[in-house]
Design goal:
Number of strands: 10
Structural class: alpha/beta
Mean pLDDT: 89
Number of helices: 10
Low-confidence stretches: none
Distance between the termini: 55 Å
Largest sheet: 8 strands, mixed
Order of helices and strands: HHHEEHEHEHEEHEHEHEEH
Radius of gyration: 32 Å
Oligomer: single chain
CATH topology of the largest domain: D-Maltodextrin-Binding Protein, domain 2
Length: 290
Amino acid sequence: MDLQQIRYFLALADELHFWKTAGKMNITQSALSRQIMALETDLGVQLFERNKRNVKLTHAGKFLKERWSKELTEINHIHQFAKEIHLGESGTIRIAHPDSISGLLMPEIVSRITKRYPKLQIELVQVLYENQHEFLTNYKVDLEISRDNSESKEIQSKVIFTDHLALVLPSNHPFKSLEQFLPETMNNEIFILPIKNDYSSYNMLINRAFESIGVKPKVFIHSEIGSTIIALVKKGLGIAIIPDSYAHHEIPGVQFIKLPIQTNLHLNWRTNDNNPVLSNVLKLILEQPF
């Protein structure tokens, strides 16, 4: 007994006519008859009562028609879902991204994915810098968007977006332009900065920003979460340097002043990962610039 024999049985159970069913299933009438007889022999059950004029289901045939119709529909759904997974159209994609692009780049990325692959499940997570490499290499996430470029041979990386660093201050702060930020005035400011990490290119970039202004910052509060930094700035606990893409979060009570220092966003993925879902999403993200 195989699935094709069950399909022949269900088609004949609907038509109750060998000639019509054979035409519908694109086989000869004699071949259809042999398939039904083989199915009955395998089951040890008579499925149809036949004479020269009529074909009708036996009680066992009626029972199997009802049960097999439901199960074959479920099997067809399973096969279709498996095909979608094989083609990368169904399944799950897990993307780690920094908080800074939640209001700017991520909505565009998610929109591209959902328009092309509406059945795909998308999980968005945020990962601390020191955990990013481990999450990606250990398959906890499939893609990682980071301001740091990975140098691991296990990971491929490509720049997908460039924005700038910006000073973020309370809205009522007297400074309104970059020209007002002089060493003698900035040295009196308290800064809120990311947690120190000598291996982070993003941290190095912030240090370069201070060097360009000629300031040695006073720092008492460190945070890896940009939205927390902004909330602390809004509360008047200090000022900060963060990516200007946070301005798209449209948070009242703070102002952004762009610095002439660019910061790149890198898309990172596993070098030898052949997951078709990952391949499809990579193409969508990389096919055109943001």
